[in-house]
Amino acid sequence: MQFIKNLHTFIWHSANKLGPFAPLIAMLLLGLIILSAARLGLVLWKFERVTATGKLLEILLQGIRVDIIQLSLLALIPLLLAPVLAIKRLFKFWQIFTYAWVILAIVLLVFLEAATPGFIGEYDVRPNRIFVEYLKYPNEVFSMLWRGFKVDVFAGLGFTLLALWAMRRFMRPWLSASPNWSNKKLWLVWPLIFLITAFAIRSSIGHRPANPALFAITPDSMVNSLILNSGYSVIYAVYSLRHESKSSAIYGKMDKADIFKLTGATDIDIPTLKTLTPSVKRDKPLNLVIILQESLGAGFVESLGGKPVTPNLEKLKEQGIWFEQLYATGTRSVRGIEAVVTGFQPTPADSTVKLSLSQKNFFTLASLLAKQGYSTEFIYGGETHFDNMQGFFMGNGFQQVIGQKDYKNPVFVGSWGASDEDLLNKTHEQLLQHHASGKSFFTLAFSSSNHAPFEFPDGRIDLYEQPKATENNAVKYADYAIGQFFEKAQKSAYWKNTLFLIVADHDIRVRGNTLVPIEHFHIPGLILGADIQAKKITSIASQIDLPVTMLSLMGISAQHPMTGHDVSNKPADYLGRAMMQYNYNFAWMEQTPDGNQVVVLREGKAPAHGIYDAKAKRLIEAATPTNAKEIEQQALANSLLPALLYDEQRFRLPK
After folding, report:
1. Architecture of the 256-647 domain
2. d(CA 355, CA 645)
3. Taking the model in full, what pTM does it have?
4. CA 233, CA 218: separation in Å to the nearest integer?
5. Are 118 and 127 in contact (CB under 8 A)?
6. Residue 15 pLDDT more than 80?
7. Residue 384: CB partners within 8 Å, gap ≥ 6?
8. Which of 310-314, 347-351, 410-414 has the lowest mean pLDDT?
9. Which residues in the chain are classed under CATH 3.40.720.10?
10. pLDDT tens, 619-632?
């Protein structure tokens, strides 16, 4: 506190020398102190992971560099206006403007830093584009924060209000300062100040200005995010959102012909178009029900090396096709929806569920099955507009969307809507109606109970742990709901004509100290129903393989643009592959007789190589393999292909 008082005295006693730039310099010095202190606190909190990188000092020093960039960016607008507003005639207006600007800037920085511990606790990274995107959904988010993150909310508000009070006191002397610089002196000094600020923003004499990739100096993405400050992280996320449809280019360039050659596509109207020959011939294709489970990672499934909180899933897996090495394509629900419902490969861009060019005429299972005479629907317990789901679904083949407003007398309603129990009860009701109508159907049901703040009805399960509102208990409840649903489904008339898929959208809280924490992309997947025989798929599989496989088992013969593999129709010695998008890192994993070979594409850096040990659940960095160029090109082509298909609107059914 004494240090701040001394800084206060220094700044305003030197105001005559600093002239109209005094408030901006005050913002720089105060901001450096606040942001450095916040970073130091986070480093101490995550000290074990930080010190494991061996770069503690570099992290702190590079952090100061990022803070200077951030504060220079905040100073840029007032600095650009200074030659006009800071002249003697308008000096009073300049004082009021900069007084308000500096207070607002510092308070905003404090707010974002105060929100950071809670965000890291949930997402293992500083506030990023998720932070920005969730602002679109205040009802769901505020409800979640109030019920599950009260301490974080009150701490954030407390620090923000304290910062506002302190900054008003700190900046008060500036309002009584006199215009002691002549206009001539202002105009002579301004170009120098502007050039210094511009250089500070660029923070590099190289070909490219500094960006987050420059500060990715460790294999641990969370630690790399500590180097940034949360204001910079959020601003860069907002900037990146404007360019997401072309963001695969961050990994490098490749000729279109080479992309097609390496991925098996051809330069026709729909480059990935193929005709599916089903592995099971049927007089009438089966119905399809996909139960997409929120955040159900392999860590919750005992037979996959996790905790014993899914006993019903463990029983059901003995009745169907069980995937032992299935990997999600990303870390968000919309990415899981994208993979399972459209078979679209991941990119650094946002999911196509949210991008503008995919809101109509984009391939989905619903668009294909609707053309085959199926009724198609999406069932959710919450607000269906969340993450643009309703807009995307209704524009791409889904004929009906059922949300929270459609539930009568639900058993339980939490922050994210009706419980999984209600969701699957509603699903059962719908399936009975569809079967009675005699029309084929495709139903996608998306759960939400396993989502912070982990709310579910009392008296359903024996709690795995105390307190009640934990992820393990929520998963056990979600599993209870699955068990109840399938107990009814197997006794229902629709069972023998319907294929079911239970699969996770992603794991919960994907994090780790490697470039891509592959162990947290591991998810359960189970196909059962109708005449499906019990079988275990031991080869690596990706979420994008599931929709192709489901169509094949249903007995559907049709053209489609999906690039996934039909794993129901592969030889015993088949070796799979998976692709995973983790923030701005893209992992391509190939199964070989000698192990799971991994290459990670990174923004602004050379690809990294490793071996993934599935038993130890660990990605081990490895020396560059002899086939490095080949696997790097394969990974790059598979990252660029979906971006190309999206940009040119060529991922669709034939017209």
Report:
1. 3-Layer(aba) Sandwich (3.40)
2. 13
3. 0.87
4. 17
5. no
6. no
7. 378, 390, 401, 402, 403, 404
8. 347-351
9. 256-647
10. 988 888 889 999 99
